[in-house]
Design brief:
Chain lengths: 161, 786, 263
């Protein structure tokens, strides 16, 4: 066992882990931050996306020890300080960008990384950026729409029905 | 004006807040103090005889609690099949045993041979590697037609052959059918494959079980669409446990799509092992494990023949389908190629003579069962592809050919056992033509051609039988269960309401849409109504969520229970208002006496029900009612879909440029949620049509065993969809007039995509009249160059 | 996965020393290695992380104008930092995997693994780049030795890759729809002294140079110059995503498109 320390959602945490402990396991099992989900074992689905030092990464594809000393952000730290939904989360609710909710944490974390990099992405840029985030419920329509809305774009022209 | 609350309002989903903040409670988020972990050693060969299993080394490994093999389950029944299909000669289907852990033979890659329970998952896996299994490999049975031949290796040694059943529906007189075809002016024939799919809900399956020696009670947390069904099957048919000692909880579930309906061996195993080991036992499937243990979908090979008269009226339809059931009968597998498939072969058309033949096969593959649409996509695909081919052969407009043959009089008795209660197929097609802008297609095609691309427009219709299902009818057809549902409406003293429903919500938004109904009926704010689901200890009973049934069946039970509550509340209100019960009206949460200004608020009545100081003596205190609802008929959502594709003639790459759906779902409770359901179905349908394919090699090895080889649709594989559900013919036999919307997208979209690709290729002068799904670039290129 | 000892050296020398141990394995971004280890298909006793070595990271322009990329530089960094220096290379890096994978995966890791469908080998071979290790320099033409096989010795680590910058270049990737690796990827670079064409995803032998196409393009640099050329389907990969013939066909299409993009 090796001690690992990092900042998670602004809070310093540490724990004893094995070499093989994945960052996703550290978050879920050691810190009980179960909002980060694991949906595959080949780094394809993106349900486990978190931010490490401000960048989106797949936490099931990174060792906890690799995040030693890092600043980690998870879905649990995304809401506004008063607990209300942040702009992206609110847009997902407003535009029905989620159904079963399992891919949602990864989607929100990827969307946040995208908007940081590209504050006003086009539809095509959003679709391309979500290449590593699978959703089986929504057919992606409302996810793309929600991210466009979260970036301040008018989405009223996008057919809803 | 769109409504802002109640029935018809696009209320925002309340469940979203927990999912968006990481506060959901999925089964893998549940950890019980002292839990052990199970790892299943699964067969890596498709077919073999187990000669010996030596677990002694594994048992001595660190952290190992116990190692189980098939021997430990010799006195335990196997996994049951919930539907007995009778073959065309009146004999019951062949029904082989399906053990929890393999006994004697392994029959597919992924078949569990042994299970190791240990302190940690890695320890369990380490020990599993130390199990010495000697298996004599046998020839694998994979091709369905070869499997049916005499002398083929047997998947199950005790069966007479690999045919589960030969089933027929519709016209039984072969001579009559032959005559129709002999006299037809034109016959179009098509042979096609409905590709095998893996449902792949984003949450893999999980089971956590605990047992208390003190109370002899079990609790199973599991990723299920129907916890009561799991409890019933596991208690009554597998483990022989009394139901009242077993609680099954399906908490937040990350998508189901059918594959989480079924009772799986891992659920029964964890429950059994929790007692045997006296420790909570947890199993979490990896995605790789899901690919070889979740029931898979579709996998039909069909020949369909359509006979038309000289005026292009459909006069006869005949199909011969081989349906792959995999190695064992999964819970509802037998019903999918039969009663959920053959019955839909009439489609939206008044074809007078129909004969459906289905031969269901055992093969050395993962079991196949219901996947979104379940039988209905297979029927729709055959029918809508053969109609399209017929139109092309006859040189007539595919839409006109469909319109000419539409059923227009309702109710309509089909030749394949259904009675459609209502519909307006021409009206729905009108909506489609407008929403999809058929008129603008030639200009869009010209624009594509100017860029060197081929553009095609594909159209199809669909009908589905949902709201599953009248218990007396399905009982006659072989179902070993009733298919009603139940709800309890519990009004609290302060007027808020908890509704315990048998339907399970795993993405469908019941927690938002169901309260809209109850709140609307009473005239109170939606936020005063809460839905409780997914826990057998909290809800009266429930057959669960599948077959687009939740609102049509469970919602109807909820309406009935709410009506009972209102009836009783009116008695109390009449007492408080000193009026006759017959004069009491309920509107906007106020009970009034007709023709007077006397009123009492909902909350005052409910408080009185629980503080019955001034109360009618003949009425019981409290305000809680339960109702069971058994539907009188199926519901029949129907629609028309249009897809526009571009094909790159150099690479064969197909891109979906536009996709439009016009659906008739009857009345709609929450349009936003309905849109979302259709979007998701279309996404999966496009996935089937262009990308997804579950492939085994000639030895039964699963080649598409991970997301690296099984192509899931991604955001950039699909466009924005246009969804129109303004065509509404309400269901005539349930109280809400609703039909169900969960599967439509997956049923209606594959033929539209393939029809569009064929249209594009033919526009480019390519003599291609069919390509099997998935219509991959490689296949398109091969078809263009053959 | 099996357990292992995790080491995170901060110098190349320490990394080389750590890799001298028995069953030691270098960890780049881990985007292929970690999934492989999850499947228990790799079982290193020691995993030596290279991501903590500052001298392995970053992009710089050498005196001769070539671009040197540290082996532990992520795809995302390359996509960002060489965008104006070597656009085709940046484009390639910016389309590997997905954004989260690009934030972890490294050029060194990709090259050392030499997956037959990976993108970077095409860029390195197509550019005629130099692979620099802790002990030597290996020319691209010598580095790739068949799928998952390279000229690297046991314990040898890539420290940087030096790319000469061509006059024009293009990477054309046709996606394998599931993995989003290249079903066929063609990296074409036009230098003053000739054209190089490297193909990934297609061959049983891993990344390769399409010599006939190079010769034809050296004579005449336009798409039509390739119309009569075809790679031999026999040597191509045939699998559930595309037949040998289809891959052979795609090599031609992607190469012509790369030429077109360079004109």
């Amino acid at each position: 066992m090796t001690q690992v320390s990092m900042t998670v959602n602004g809070k310093t945490v540490s724990g004893d882990v094995e070499g093989r402990t994945l960052l996703s396991s550290f978050l879920r099992d050691h810190l009980s931050l179960t909002g980060t989900h694991v949906g595959c074992d080949t780094a394809q689905c993106g349900a486990c996306v978190v931010h490490v030092n401000g960048e989106a990464v797949k936490s099931c594809n990174m060792l906890a020890l690799e995040a030693d000393g890092a600043e980690v952000g998870t879905i649990e730290g995304q809401a506004n300080p008063d607990g209300s939904l942040n702009v992206i989360q609110q847009a997902f609710q407003d535009h029905h960008g989620l159904q079963c909710g399992f891919c949602t944490p990864g989607m929100v974390m990827s969307a946040a990384a995208l908007l940081k990099e590209n504050p006003r992405p086009t539809e095509a840029e959003i679709r391309k950026y979500l290449e590593g985030n699978l959703c089986r419920c929504t057919g992606y329509h409302n996810i793309v729409k929600a991210i466009m809305a979260a970036s301040g774009q008018d989405v009223s022209h996008i057919a809803a029905e | 004006m769109p409504k802002d609350s109640g029935i018809g309002a696009s209320s925002k989903r309340r469940e979203d807040v927990r999912f968006l903040t990481g506060a959901g409670n999925y089964t893998d988020d549940i950890n019980i103090r002292g839990q052990a972990y199970v790892y299943f050693l699964r067969s890596d060969i498709a077919h073999g005889r187990i000669k010996s299993i030596d677990t002694s080394a594994a048992e001595a490994m660190p952290g190992v609690v116990r190692v189980f093999t098939g021997k430990d389950f010799e006195g335990v029944s196997g996994m049951p099949c919930g539907w007995e299909v009778t073959d065309k000669h009146g004999a019951p289907m062949q029904e082989p045993p399906h053990p929890i852990l393999a006994q004697g033979k392994v029959r597919h890659v992924g078949d569990p041979i042994a299970a190791v329970v240990a302190d940690s998952l890695e320890q369990a896996r380490d020990a599993a590697e130390a199990i010495d299994v000697d298996i004599e490999e046998l020839p694998a049975v994979l091709d369905m037609k070869a499997a049916a031949e005499e002398g083929a290796p047997l998947v199950h040694d005790d069966l007479k052959n690999n045919i589960c059943y030969d089933w027929q529906l519709g016209e039984a007189d072969d001579d009559k059918v032959n005559e129709v075809f002999a006299n037809a002016a034109h016959v179009t024939t098509l042979e096609l494959v409905n590709n095998r799919l893996v449902a792949n809900p984003m949450e893999p399956r999980v089971a956590v079980a605990e047992y208390s020696r003190g109370t002899d009670e079990y609790t199973l947390y599991t990723t299920s669409q129907n916890p009561h069904v799991i409890r019933l099957l596991m208690c009554a048919f597998v483990l022989g446990l009394p139901e009242h000692k077993v609680r099954v909880v399906a908490p937040d579930v990350g998508g189901g799509f059918g594959t989480k309906i079924f009772h799986y061996a891992e659920e029964a195993f964890c429950t059994f092992a929790a007692k045997a080991c006296n420790r909570p036992v947890k199993w979490t499937a990896s995605r790789s494990e899901a690919f070889m243990s979740d029931a898979q979908g579709r996998d039909h090979v069909s020949k369909i023949e359509l006979a038309l008269d000289a005026d292009n009226n459909f006069v006869g339809l005949r199909t011969h389908t081989y349906a792959n059931l995999g190695a064992y009968l999964s819970t509802f597998s037998s019903s999918v190629p039969t009663w959920l498939h053959g019955t839909l072969m009439a489609g939206n058309y008044k074809t007078p003579v129909i004969q459906v033949n289905v031969r269901a096969m055992f093969t050395n593959t993962v079991p196949v069962d219901a996947y979104r649409g379940a039988g209905r996509p297979e029927a729709t695909y055959q029918l809508e592809r053969v109609i399209d081919k017929a139109a092309r052969e006859l040189g007539v407009d595919p839409v006109a050919l469909r319109r000419q043959n539409f059923i227009t009089q309702f109710p309509y008795d089909t030749p394949v056992a259904l009675t459609y209660d209502t519909g307006d197929y021409n009206g729905t097609m009108d909506k489609l033509e407008q929403a999809a802008d058929f008129a603008g297609f030639p200009a869009r095609r010209a624009e594509s051609e100017a860029r060197g691309k081929l553009r095609g427009l594909g159209v199809n219709c669909y009908i589905e039988a949902c709201g599953i299902a009248p218990s007396n009818i399905v009982g006659m057809l072989g179902a070993r269960a009733g298919l009603y549902d139940a709800a309890t409406v519990r009004v609290n003293a302060t007027g808020s309401i908890s509704v315990m429903v048998g339907a399970h919500s795993h993405g469908q938004g019941h927690e938002t849409a169901f309260p809209q109904v109850v709140a609307d009926m009473i005239g109170i704010d939606e936020s005063m109504v809460e839905i409780v689901h997914g826990d057998t200890s909290k809800i009266p009973f429930g057959m669960g969520t599948y077959g687009s049934r939740s609102l049509a069946v469970c919602g109807s039970a909820m309406v009935k229970a709410t009506e009972k509550v209102i009836e009783k509340a009116k008695k109390i209100a009449a007492h408080l208002l000193e009026a006759s019960e017959a004069d009491i009206e309920l509107k906007d949460g106020q009970f009034t006496v007709a023709g007077t200004d006397k009123s009492v608020a909902w909350g005052d009545v409910t408080l009185t029900a629980y503080v019955p100081h001034n109360f009618p003596l003949e009425v019981e205190p409290g305000l809680e009612e339960t109702a069971f609802y058994d539907p009188a008929n199926f519901t029949f959502p129907a629609g028309a879909y249009a897809c526009e594709v571009e094909v790159d003639p150099e690479t064969g790459q197909v891109t979906i440029e536009r996709f439009t759906a016009a659906d008739d779902f009857g009345n709609i409770i929450n349009p936003m949620i309905v849109d979302g359901q259709v979007h998701g179905g279309i996404g999966q349908g496009i996935g089937q049509a262009l990308l997804e394919n579950c492939v085994y090699d000639e030895n039964g090895q699963l080649l598409s065993a991970s997301f690296m080889d099984y192509a899931m649709p991604r955001a950039d594989d699909v466009p924005f969809y246009t969804v129109d559900h303004s065509s509404q013919t309400p269901c005539t036999h349930n109280p809400l007039g609703v039909k169900g919307c969960g599967e439509a997208g997956a049923i209606g979209s594959p033929p539209a995509v393939v029809n569009a690709v064929i249209d594009a290729l033919q526009s480019g002068g390519k003599a291609v009249d069919h390509i099997d799904m998935p219509v991959s670039p490689s296949r398109v290129w091969a078809a263009m160059n053959s | 996965m099996y357990n292992f000892e995790f080491k995170s050296p901060s110098t190349i020398a320490d990394a080389v020393a750590a890799l001298a141990g028995e069953d030691a394995q270098a960890l780049g971004g881990g985007q292929t290695l970690i999934p492989t280890m999850k499947q228990r298909l790799a079982a290193p006793a020691t995993l030596v992380r290279l991501g903590g070595i500052p001298e392995l990271k970053g992009v710089c322009v050498e005196d001769d104008g070539s671009i040197a990329i540290g082996a532990a530089t992520t795809h995302a960094t390359v996509a960002r930092e060489v965008a104006d220096k070597y656009p085709a290379l940046a484009d390639l890096a910016g389309h590997i995997g997905d954004p989260a994978v690009r934030n972890r995966g490294t050029i060194g890791g990709s090259l050392a693994n030499n997956d037959p469908a990976a993108c970077y080998p095409a860029a390195v071979l197509g550019s005629g780049a130099m692979v620099v290790t802790n002990s030597r320099q290996i020319a691209a033409d010598d580095f790739f030795q068949g799928m998952f096989t390279t000229a690297l010795d046991e314990g040898e680590i890539i420290t940087s890759v030096r790319f000469p910058v061509p006059q024009a270049a293009s990477y054309q990737k046709f996606l394998q729809p599931a993995s989003r690796f290249a079903l066929v990827g063609v990296f074409l670079a036009r230098f003053a002294d000739g054209v190089r064409v490297a193909v990934t995803g297609a061959s049983e032998e891993g990344v390769f140079r399409w010599a006939e196409a190079e010769q034809a393009l050296n004579k005449e640099f336009r798409p039509d110059a390739l119309m009569d050329l075809r790679v031999n389907p026999m040597n191509m990969i045939g699998d559930l995503h595309g037949s040998k013939e289809y891959r052979a066909h795609l090599v031609g299409v992607m190469t012509r498109r790369a030429v077109q993009a360079c004109i």
